[in-house]
Amino acid sequence: MGLFSSIFQRKNNDTSSLEKEKKIALSGSNEERRDLAQNPSTSREILCYMAAKDKNEDIRLILAERLARLLPDLSTDKQSSLYKYAVEALGVLALDEVLKVRVALSSVLKDFADAPPNIVGQLARDIEKQVSEPILRYCLALPDEDLLDILRAHPSSWAVQAIAQRPQLSQPVSGAVINTGDGLAGLMLLENTGAEISLDDLKVIVKKAKTNPEWQKPIALRKNLPHELVSELLAFVDHSVRMVLQEKTEFSMEEMDEITGNVIRRVEFADQKNEAPEDRVTRYLREGQLNEQVIHDAISVRDYEFVLMALAALLRTSPQNIKNIFEMKAAKSVVAICWRAGLSMRTALKLEQEVVKIPHKELIYPRGGTDYPLSEADMEWQLDFLGLSSK
Fold it and tell me: Does residue 5 register a pLDDT over 60?
């Protein structure tokens, strides 16, 4: 009988009660064992034994509920033999072949924050929704490791949705819910104020919200939404969501309209990437639209090949020459070619930082926030050195 054998081998002075309970537990009738299981004065050790060993499913059902409700008191001393008996008995009940026994156990343990992790982990993986859903939805004792393992196993939608509604969700578990691709679970997660969501996952969610419009308002309502994601949302949300976003930021309606226009324009620019960069540069030149705004859009969507060719066209030199200049990683050279191309110092700084990737300590910043900091003579010298002099 394993762990429980000690219950029956141990000598006890109280032969008038414990010995009688042992006898009933081993060989009593169904009615006698049922009465013993329901009796408030029955030894807890006997209850543990019966829960694990009794062959009558109705008696096991009674004992599953009793033991689960006794567990909080027993867990005050997790090193005690009685606690170990209870855990072993509950572990057997978690695998019981009778569904209603497992359902009863799940319905009680879901509310016990200190339930044994191995037992709630077993119940959480039960193939029957009646057993696993309450644990997945409510049980705080279920470890993140189990939740992540369950989500990796591509569970049914109801299981993902149960996890998405848990009172507390860590960032890794929230990310795993989003990665399942379940739209309703994603909505439940976004509406769940107890769910922590990382910045990387928020970026994924904002992108997916374009094709999941029901996600848009819950995203807008989340606290501490970064301005970069507010800007991206503004490009495609409806008026009611725009109003929610405005209430959360210091943007005026005019600024929001400008942000929206910028984002939409950059999305449209990115959609042209199936056209060769040289063809796009030629087209923009022909239409008189190869300007600073277009170059900013290209930098924003990391279309650096277009940037290189656009600068070559504006400076009337070859793309290879511009590439060679970039590879020098010299801030003064970048500033000089932007000046000659008729671009602002603000664009020069973006090129230094994002395209050429000049080390932070070597960057050249605008004077007064907007002006070129180098003298014209200095920039002409740089251009002459680069073979781009206008003379």
Answer: no
